[in-house]
Amino acid sequence: MNLELRSDTFTKPTPAMLEAMFSAVVGDDVFDDDPTVKALEHKAATMFGYEAGLFCASGTMTNQIAINVHVRQGDEVICDALSHIYLYEGGGIAANSMASVNLLQGNRGRLTASQIREAIQPDNFHHPISRLVSLENTVNKGGGCYYELDEIQQIKQVCIENNIPLHLDGARIFNALVATQESPLLYGKVFDSMSICLSKGLGTPIGSLLLGTSTFIKQARRVRKRLGGGWRQAGYLAAAGIYALDNHTDRLKEDHTRAKTIGEIMEQLPEVEEIYPVDTNIVIARLNESILASDYVQQLLEKGIKASPFGKHLVRFVTHLDFTDEHLEEFRKLMR
Hints:
Blueprint: E1 3-4, H1 15-22, H2 35-48, E2 52-56, H3 59-70, E3 76-80, H4 84-87, H5 92-97, E4 100-104, H6 113-119, E5 130-136, H7 149-161, E6 166-170, H8 173-180, H9 185-190, E7 193-197, E8 208-212, H10 214-226, H11 235-247, H12 252-266, E9 272-275, E10 282-287, H13 293-303, E11 305-306, E12 308-309, E13 314-318, H14 325-335
Parallel strand pairs: 1-11, 3-4, 3-5, 5-6, 6-7
Antiparallel strand pairs: 2-8, 7-8, 9-10, 10-13, 12-13
Helix pairs in contact: 1-11, 2-11, 3-10, 6-7, 12-14
């Protein structure tokens, strides 16, 4: 038995999801003529309180499209130094939008309103214009930690006062919502644009959505086309997204419970110095300085456990819908 814990992107569609895909009614989305894509975009937008949505291939694409619409050449994006949009999107902020970044040091990737207020550039031609604030929830590099809505609302107020839009990289937003029990409609009130991923905790084979106003999404659709992101019969994939939104959100709490157990198992091991707080479905273990994460991951692989090196001495484990209680018990046995 191989235990897949590298990422929640390794999930396979369930039989019921595949059935929904096989029976989807499709068209050509480049011609704005795929009814299932339209249904997914409307469903997701309505769920979070937005006017419109845009179905894309990945969270990187939705984030980079949003940034491109919000900023101009030479502007800057304010974000945490651990942000996915900065670390893991191929330098897209510079390459796609020719914008700068103002990197802040938050708490496990989470920023505060006061930090952002202090970071906004003065109106001086020596500096780039602070044009966009981007948050990530949950924070991948922060071990799946999440924002409290109160802090987000305070950040939004700073953005309003300075006429700066607020974007959310919500790759694992459903994990945050399950943990906080907050209504997704509240997010549409505070974020000007939002990226949500369907192929992580929700278990679809591919796809993310960008949400915003109708005007914003119209501009975003043009950028998606320019980047080569137009779909044809994308309804087969959109059907998986609709099924996931209807059936795979509440079960995320099971992933969180199993992740906490993995953290408890790992913290008992002599080679582990620290386990980051396990808030959702990500477990990050800091090893003794004498052990390289790359070597440790290879040792785990030889046992049949797949994990990811996440730094020189950091190892990441991610639970998901294909990692069951049976797998968890096997993990416990192997680590013992």
